[in-house]
Amino acid sequence: MNRYILLAVSLAVIAVSCGRSSEKATVSKVTPAVTVIDKGFSKYIAAYTTGVIPAGSVIQVVFTPEFAAAIDRGKSQNLFTFTPSLKGKTEWADDLTLIFRPSKPLAGGTEYGATLNLGRLGDVEERLRFFPMNFRTIEKNFTVTVN
What's the confidence (pLDDT) of residue 3? Predict the structure, then answer.
């Protein structure tokens, strides 16, 4: 019992002391939202755009070969929804890869949420009809000093 109390007190001291710093933080204070992805999507999706990306990027979803073989490629419009809203074109890069090409570069330093309607592409489990994605664009933040 004493061990657990000592452990709890130690963790509390570490947590409180780690939060204090007299130096300026060099890491951005903005933390992107984390979307928890259901493991069931691994039957359909092998890879996708996530994390921090350049403003000129396309958004990609790579499907598993099994799911890609059964996809209705005729339905490539209105598959993605974005927050904030994006205009662009959805197209197939190859047999496995669906891309969304924004009509103009993404805004720098912006967090985007996206949803892919998997149910429009093929037969999927009801709970996995909509695949959530999130990503953030690199913030354009630099200084040039000329001596």
Answer: 56
pTM score, two decimals?
Answer: 0.71
Per-position DSSP letters for the chain, written without gaps between them: -HHHHHHHHHHHHHHHHHT--SSPP-S-S-----PPPPGGGGGTEEEE--EEE-TTPPEEEEE-HHHHHT--TT--SS-EEEES---EEEEESSSSEEEEEESSPPPTT-EEEEEEEGGGTS---GGGSEEEEEEEEPP--------
Query: In terms of pLDDT, which residue wins out, 4 or 137?
Result: 137
Residue scoring higher pLDDT (37 or 63)? 63
Q: Do residues 94 and 77 lie in contact, with contact meaning Cβ atoms separated by under 8 Å?
A: no
- For 59, 79, 123, 137, the CA distances from 68, given in Å and listed in that order, are 17, 15, 11, 28
